[in-house]
Amino acid sequence: MATLLRSKLSNVATSVSNKSQAKMSGMFARMGFQAATDEEAVGFAHCDDLDMEHRQGLQMDILKSEGGEDGAEPPLEGDIHYQRDGTGPLPPSGSKEACSELSGQGKPKITAWEAGWNVTNAIQGMFVLGLPYAILHGGYLGLFLIIFAAVVCCYTGKILIACLYEENEDGEIVRVRDSYVDIANACCAPRFPTLGGRIVNVAQIIELVMTCILYVVVSGNLMYNSFPNLPVSQKSWSIIATAVLLPCAFLKNLKAVSKFSLLCTLAHFVINILVIAYCLSRARDWAWDKVKFYIDVKKFPISIGIIVFSYTSQIFLPSLEGNMQNPKEFHCMMNWTHIAACILKGLFALVAYLTWADETKEVITDNLPSTIRAVVNIFLVAKALLSYPLPFFAAVEVLERSLFQDGNRAFFPNCYGGDGRLKSWGLTLRCALVVFTLLMAIYVPHFALLMGLTGSLTGAGLCFLLPSLFHLKLLWRKLLWHHVFFDVAIFVIGGICSVSGFIHSLEGLIEAFRTNAED
User: Fold this and answer.
1) Could you give the number of structural domains in the chain?
2) pLDDT, tens digit, for every residue of 439-482?
3) How far is the C-alpha of 196 from the C-alpha of 193, rounded, in Å?
4) In a domain, 473, yes or no
5) What Cα–Cα distance (Å) separates residue 40 from each residue in 34, 220, 339, 346?
6) What domain range includes position 440?
7) Opening angle at CA 92, ends 88 and 93, nearest 5
């Protein structure tokens, strides 16, 4: 009897643990995406249709646990676990899952168009509003960099996916890794099997937190410039925005928030079109003579970071490719999404700069006439506030998993109680993270500086340096000479741009921090 009781208790504990892991893994399949990106695309366009697929995450099927062995206790209802190879027992006949298995569709998949929509969301987000400012300090070279960054990011995205596959004993190419972290760990094995993953996680956390800070900065900036006559400073607007965002600390999931993802993205595209339409209406006054082949040595490296940051999507690509109906279409999808992004970004940055020339501001909508600026900026603020919970929740998930829920390797006690509820001190840490984003936004309220710093530090690392390095490390024996040349060239150029942009952005950041501290 005691043995039976212990067996049942063990099954219940396993069930709870696996359900928790399933939820977390599924969230990261989605966040890996925002994670990466997060910039703009943490939520998928058709959230309700794809939610089931992303909960399964990283190509893991959630199936009924095994228990059909002779003499074994049958599994409890709802007891589930992960099956990477899909060899687990089928669900009960007649169930929805059984029908999917029998029809050859063990889990929902996304089409190449849906995958392309997610990549487009990530690289066509609201941070393109800073691209005209990059042209201000780079001229035609800035336009060239928009094209160059699109080509390089498209290439590194493809080689990153190539690192997920290896050739088995039969000569077949099979997927042996699931994520960016897996690739990083494989490169550092056997001496440091977890070092690469930790580096990627740190870069991911920095990028996500900086994205949250940028949302607060842009919210305060847009509101202040929309209502300049009100006795409210930009810092005060940032505080108000953070007060609205404080409930994010209580988030348990993103189901409610992500429903706004498609609406916000469409609204942003409409705003971009309005800005371009206004610029076209002033085509006769365009200052072509202001666009030159020159660079501002001190500020152009910051522009490099801005451009790179606007293309970051690599962090979620492995999960996205693994969930496509036909992974062979991934390369084609990357081509057309980055070509479209290159054309739209280049046109947007050029026509906006031609319209305002040397008066181009960090956030281009601040240049619009006051009659339409307020309306456009309010929509952008709403989008920024609704987008904030996505990277925030992703950062919280990474921190909690790495520091509080990593089994015996966790640095701190678990922040969740036995009933799955968040402990009070865990909630306090979440609130502290929200307040930290506010403090950074108050002391360094410079959209371009923060965006350039993030792009130079984590954007260049995740998009340029690490993919080319991993590709050389894992597949160098099978690479053709031109692939080796491209990888080495990207690593060197990316390293130079990253270091240069980081140093100049950091100098500007420190100077701005001192100025605001004195005020």
Assistant:
1) 1
2) 988 888 888 888 888 888 888 999 999 999 999 988 877 777 88
3) 7
4) yes
5) 7, 18, 18, 19
6) 119-518
7) 115
